[in-house]
Amino acid sequence: MKKTIVTMICMVLFSAVDLSAAPNDPQEEKAVLQTLDRMGQAMVNKDIAMLTNVLHDDLTWGHSTGHTQTKSEMLQTVAGTEIWEIFKYSKATIHFYGSTAVVRAVADIRNGTPPQPIHDGHFNILLVLVKGPQGWQIVGEQRVHLKEKES
Question: How far apart are CA 63 and CA 125, in angstroms?
C-alpha cells in the first residue's frame, strides 16, 4: 500500500512539472553568441579588459589536457607570451535554464608560445554562461579534441 501511495505521489509531482523545452528567445541567443565572439576576439587581441568582462569571477576553464584555470590564471595566460591567431566558435547549440545558458559548440584555435611552433586545435566545447548585471559571462568551459576537422 505504501509503495502504491509513493508511486501515485511521484506521478502527480512529475505530471505537474513541464519538462518540455521552451523555444529559445532569439535576443538571448544572439547575446550569448556575441559573448562567445567577444571571448574569441579578446583572446586574439590580448584584450584583457574585454576578457575580464566576458569571464565570470567563478570561472573554471578546463583544457583538453586536463589542466584547469581560474579567471585570474586565464587572464595571466592571455597577458603572457602565448599568442592566439584564431579563436572561433561554430555550430553552437544553446539551451537556457533561467539565467544559465549551456552551449555546445565546435572551436577552432590556432595558438602557441614562441619559440614553440604554432599549432591548430579543433575541439568539441561545452560552455556554461550565467546572466548577471554585466550580461552573459562564461563561468565554465570544458573541451575535448576532435580527431578530424569537419568540413
Answer: 10
